[in-house]
């Protein structure tokens, strides 16, 4: 009887990694739909944040980075006010 160079555990792992893809078109469209939903949810959350953070008069349109930066500064300002009140 010949001995194989790897154990049955290694062989099972190899089979799992090299399985042919089934329904790759279906899984790709599922992935695309999930990504679309994730981006829509992120957009909604950013819109809510925009309503909570004072942006100032100079802003008609903000980048995500500028919105998050202003939110961070606003939170720090609120924390400072809270510390001074105590």
Automatic annotation (TrEMBL):
Which Gene Ontology MF annotations are present?
DNA binding; protein dimerization activity
Q: Which InterPro entries match?
A: bHLH_dom (IPR011598), HLH_DNA-bd_sf (IPR036638)
Tree of life domain: Eukaryota
Q: Name one GO cellular component term.
A: nucleus
Annotated ranges, domain BHLH: 26-78
Residues of the region (Disordered) are 1-39
PROSITE patterns with a match to the protein in the record: BHLH (PS50888)
Q: Which Gene3D superfamilies match?
A: Helix-loop-helix DNA-binding domain
Which coarse location class applies to the principal site listed for this UniProt protein?
A: nucleus
Sorted keywords for this record are:
DNA-binding, Nucleus, Repressor, Transcription, Transcription regulation
Give its localization: Nucleus
Recorded protein name is: Max dimerization protein 1
Task: Look up and give the organism this protein is from.
Answer: Rattus norvegicus
Taxonomic path: Eukaryota, Metazoa, Chordata, Craniata, Vertebrata
